[in-house]
Amino acid sequence: MRSSRTTALAMAGALSLGLLAACSSNDNSSGDSSASASGDAKVTITVAGLQPGAEQTAVDALNERVTQFEAKYPNITIKTQEYNWLASTFAADLAGGTLPTVFEVPATDTKTLIQNGQLADIDSQVKQLSYANDFNKEVLAAGLSDDGKVYAVPAKSIYAVALHYNRKLFTDAGLDPNKPPTTWDEIRADAKTIHDKTGTPGYAMMALDNAGGWQLTAAAYSRGGRTQTLKDGKYTATLTDPAVKQSLEFLADLKKDGSLFDNTQLGWGDINGDFAAGQFAMYTSGSDIYTALVQNNGVTKDSLDYGLTALPTTSDKSSGTLGGGTYAAVDPKATDAEKDAAVKWIDFWYLSKLVDQTQAVADAKILAEQSPPQAVGTPTLPIFSKEQYTTSLGWIKDYVNVPLDNMKGYTDVMFTQPVIPEAARATQETYGLLFPIVQAVMTDPNSDIDKLLAAANTQSQALIDQAG
């Protein structure tokens, strides 16, 4: 989940990118990888564009790709629409007809939306794609119905939660930016050093709405904990897991050290903006955030000395990083012609650049040649396989403009670090129970954490039981 737009990878059980690497890859080159045409009838569809407030250069890049798409498919007209996933308004937007034909959903919600009949069956269209059998099965699973039909396709921002840091603040504090912290104790120590030496808070935490629960869960996962377990077909709330408490105690310690950024109203977009402005040194979020920093906050290599490293994990075999992702889906009221056009757009905009060299280069070239350039090469977990991911990066190597040398703390382990899915039942509702606790501890480090978690756990269990 990412603040108002949840993003999570609903994979069955913990998986590492070593498993992803074992999946088959598709090495087709510049052939047409899109679904076959269904006649020349004119059709117009709306598609999810960028988030409100995106930089004009990002909008220009999208518009250029629309022009290329319409040249390829002259019978299809594309209208882009600003889009931001909001679980609280999705049903009303769908019923009111204000959603685009192609929209994005977080994997935490795909199964529920499928069961509710809120996503279109696009199985036949997706199976016409030349790479339909090459999706990583664990990743694709979140978009399948119980009978195995495709209702949503992994599209972008397939990520693992990682640690983002301001390398300049590390240097100013006398720390080596090439040796970022690898444990939570080191993060606390570095945060205090940065605050003491520079006067800038060393660490910030999302705490607004469900984003706070999302990142608290990520912190607990990294310590080997869980917020929910499954045994003998029964889901049990485990918000009283010691690792959840330890993650809150970490925030309390930062508060006592004076090194915690004192804003308890930071959501996904808010924390990105403050980080881009140099308001604090470190925070956790998806590994793909650099793209959003460029698109929405105008970050360049010169404006921010950006660093990315892996989320600390422990020797506990249950320890890992929380995984997430965004899926593309289609309005259930779409006609067959609109669904055909929609999957062609999904192929063109989201996926073909990962399996088709011509499309990969075209997409990267447009992004890189904007003024200022948009991000090309931000690390993401592969939708297909490690081999295909590496191949596609090779195709666009001349256009990669993200500071990969400053991201090695993450990229060196991204294919081996265990990736754990979010809880399967009442996910968002549970995040909604957790974020006020995050805010309470950030405000008062002497809060009764045990009492707060016990009360939330009881409520979470009730929500799980209600969800069935």
The quaternary organization reads as: single chain
Number of E-state strands:
11
Shape: globular
State which percent range the strand residues make up: 5-15%
CATH topology of the largest domain: D-Maltodextrin-Binding Protein, domain 2
Question: Which CATH-level-2 architecture of the largest domain?
Answer: 3-Layer(aba) Sandwich
CATH superfamily of the largest domain: Periplasmic binding protein-like II
How many discrete structural domains? 2
Please state the CA-atom Rg, rounded to the nearest Å: 22 Å
SSE blueprint and pairings:
Layout: E1 15-16, H1 17-21, E2 43-48, H2 56-72, E3 76-81, H3 90-96, E4 102-106, H4 107-115, H5 123-126, H6 137-140, E5 152-166, H7 167-172, H8 184-198, H9 210-222, E6 228-231, E7 234-237, H10 242-257, H11 268-276, E8 282-286, H12 289-297, E9 306-310, E10 321-330, H13 336-355, H14 357-368, H15 386-395, H16 408-411, E11 418-420, H17 427-443, H18 449-467
Parallel strand pairs: 2-3, 10-11
Antiparallel strand pairs: 1-11, 4-10, 5-8, 5-9, 5-10, 6-7
Helix pairs in contact: 8-10, 9-10, 9-17, 10-17, 13-14, 17-18
Question: How would you characterize this protein structure?
Answer:
- With 468 residues, the chain is an alpha+beta fold.
- The chain has two domains: 15-158 and 323-418, D-Maltodextrin-Binding Protein, domain 2 (3-Layer(aba) Sandwich), CATH 3.40.190.10; 164-320 and 425-467, D-Maltodextrin-Binding Protein, domain 2.
- The protein has helices at 17-21, 56-72, 90-96, 107-115, 123-126, 137-140, 167-172, 184-198, 210-222, 242-257, 268-276, 289-297, 336-355, 357-368, 386-395, 408-411, 427-443, 449-467; strands spanning 15-16, 43-48, 76-81, 102-106, 152-166, 228-231, 234-237, 282-286, 306-310, 321-330, 418-420.
- Helix 9 (210-222) packs across helix 17 (427-443), helix 10 packs parallel to helix 17 and helix 17 runs antiparallel to helix 18 (449-467).
- The protein is globular, with a radius of gyration of 22 Å.
- The two termini are 21 Å apart.
